Recover the amino acids of this structure.
């Protein structure tokens, strides 16, 4: 019985070792099936690697001294945010000179660490 177990063990090891050198074939992907690319960057990423997002909303407060703007914005898909009112840092701060409270605006955000920084804003 020991001899049979030894033979079966050696045979099984030979099969395992033989399989180690084999490569698993990978299926070919046709060009029309390939996922679209964005030049090596994830969607919403800019050249510096920061995620960018766009939104629309209404200016509810401006703090020129602090360089902040508060926006009551709609959902921002790129950030995964629902509609809400939020305060953002504006960079450059001169963006705050182009809008006033009550303006309906479109804006761009540079996303970092779960927060956004307004980098562009335009009255609609």
């Amino acid at each position: 019985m020991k001899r049979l177990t030894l033979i079966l063990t050696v045979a099984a090891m030979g099969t395992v070792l033989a399989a180690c050198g084999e490569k698993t074939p990978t299926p070919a992907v046709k060009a029309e099936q390939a996922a679209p690319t964005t030049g090596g960057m994830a969607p919403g990423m800019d050249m510096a690697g920061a995620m960018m997002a766009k939104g629309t909303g209404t200016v509810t407060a401006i703090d020129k001294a602090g360089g902040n703007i508060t926006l009551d914005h709609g959902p921002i898909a790129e950030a995964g945010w629902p509609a809400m009112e939020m305060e953002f840092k504006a960079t450059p701060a001169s963006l705050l000179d182009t809008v006033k409270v009550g303006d309906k605006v479109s804006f761009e955000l540079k996303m970092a660490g779960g927060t956004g920084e307004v980098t562009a804003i335009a009255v609609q």
In short: The helical segments are 2-20. The domain at 51-123 is CATH 2.40.50.320 (OB fold (Dihydrolipoamide Acetyltransferase, E2P)). Confidence is low (pLDDT under 50) at residues 22-43.
